[in-house]
Amino acid sequence: MAIIVNLDVMMAKRKISSNELAEKVGITAANLSILKTGKAKAVRFSTLDKICEVLECQPGDILEFRK
């Protein structure tokens, strides 16, 4: 997959745990894990919006395109 998910990097920078982020975003810890590992096939804009709000970042800080 050419889309790299750097969610774990942003979480470390903000010093927030997976469980805390999942709770604040309103998704399950299991779904957050799927997203973090890059196994997700899609992400809702509303979820991405909330993640960015909680982590105080831009979508490009989380998602990266590599050939």
What can you see in these coordinates?
With 67 residues, this protein is mostly helical. It has one domain: lambda repressor-like DNA-binding domains (434 Repressor (Amino-terminal Domain), Orthogonal Bundle), CATH 1.10.260.40. The chain has helices at 7-14, 18-25, 29-36, 45-55, 59-62, and strands at residues 3-5, 63-65. It has a two-stranded antiparallel ribbon with strand order 1-2. Helix 2 (18-25) crosses helix 3. It is globular and about 35 Å long.
Name its key features.
434 Repressor (Amino-terminal Domain), single chain, globular
Topology (SSEs and partners):
Blueprint: E1 3-5, H1 7-14, H2 18-25, H3 29-36, H4 45-55, H5 59-62, E2 63-65
Helix pairs in contact: 2-3
Find the structural class using helix and strand composition.
mainly alpha
Please mark out the parts with pLDDT under 50 across 5 or more consecutive residues, or reply none. none
User: How much helix, percentage-wise, in residues?
Assistant: 55-70%
Number of helices: 5
Topology as a string of helices (H) and strands (E): EHHHHHE
- Using the coordinates shown, work out and report the CATH topology: 434 Repressor (Amino-terminal Domain)
Tell me which oligomeric state these chains represent: single chain
